[in-house]
Amino acid sequence: MASAFSKWLVDPKKNWFAAQHMKALSNRLRRYGLRYDDLYDPYYDLDVKEALNRLPREVVDARNQRLKRAMDLSMKHEYLPEDFQAMQTPFRSYLQDMLALIVGSHIASPLAFTGSLFTGAVLPGHSKNSCIHV
Q1: What are the C-alpha distances in Å from 21 to residues 26, 34, 52, 62, 85?
Q2: pTM for the full model?
Q3: Cα(38)–Cα(35) distance, rounded to whole angstroms?
């Protein structure tokens, strides 16, 4: 039941509030010439970093150019001209397929996962039996 509710909650075709959020997000991304996939941070998620490494160089260069332009516009407190905003495609994905492939490979072979699931770090004032899971 919760799964069906959560799917309904984020589906813009079924939920008016989700549609309004998507419209507002689309307008904000168009103002700076960004795509939704540009918002993923490769320093935060190793799967995103791996997906960007596997993409063609031209796609990554275009992403970096969009991010630089958006930072420049933001620092100047400006937006893209209206005619350029109309040409933007903020929800055209370039990263999701590769990201799904990488996450799927983690699920298919959990032994291939290279990240450390357990660090075994002990905080001051805690015993060795109370380790931190990261």
Answers
A1: 8, 16, 27, 26, 18
A2: 0.72
A3: 5
Amino acid occupying residue 104: G
For residue 130 the two structure tokens come to 């109370």
- Tally of CB atoms within 10 A around 94: 18
The DSSP string of 63-117 is: HHHHHHHHHHHHHTT----HHHHHH--TT--SSHHHHHHHHHHHHH-GGG--S-S
Count of residues in the chain: 134
pLDDT digits (tens, 9 = 90+) for 50-103: 999 999 999 999 999 999 999 999 999 999 999 999 999 999 999 999 999 998
Tokens (6 digits) for 51: 């997906």
CA distance 63 to 69: 10
Query: Crossing angle, helix 16-32 and helix 57-75, to 10 degrees?
Result: 90
* Residue 108 exposed, middle or buried by CB count within 10 Å (0-12, 13-18, 19+): exposed
Phi then psi for residue 39, to 5 deg, are: -80, -15
How many Cβ atoms sit within 10 Å of the Cβ of residue 90? 21
